[in-house]
Each structure stands twice: as structure tokens, then as C-alpha cells.
What does this fold into?
Amino acid sequence: MKTPQSSIAVLAFEDMSPGRDQEYFCDGVAEEILTMLTRVPDLHVASRTSSFRFKGQAMDIADIAGQLGVRTVLEGSVRCSSNRKIHRCCTTWPAFTPS
It folds into this structure.
């Protein structure tokens, strides 16, 4: 399978809150970003079902990108502090060097 030049996967965000009780919110943030990215013309976005199957797994980003057939992977985390949700550490990783 050839990887589209402009392609991304949005992984489930990690819950970094002290109580680890914000999983639902974390998933919602990642889903909103994924949905917004699907509106970008000529950008292939891996499905939520495909991307979220890696939730909780410690895997190399390049391996995830290869399995999903994308060139870029976005990962992130959310933590709750003083009753405020804080988005933190949204990082995109280029998984392949374009040839």
C-alpha cells in the first residue's frame, strides 16, 4: 500500500490528570481534532477506529504510522488542574522521510 503524501493519524490522547479520570474528555479532544482534519482538502486522515486501537500501547510511532498507512502521527495528552481542562503536549511526528 502506498502512503499518501499528505496523511495523518490522530492517536487517543493520554489522561495525565492525577486521578486518571478524564479518559472520556481525552478521547473527545482527539476526536474533535480528527474531525476537523477531515475537512482539510487532499489530506488523508486515518479513521478513529483504526487510530484508537493503539490506545494504551507503548509502540514506536513509525510502526504505528506504517500500520495505519500515514506519514504523520499526532499524539497528545490532557490533564485536569484546578477544575480546568488543559490540553497539553500535542505533538506531531513525521513518521517517514518523503522520497
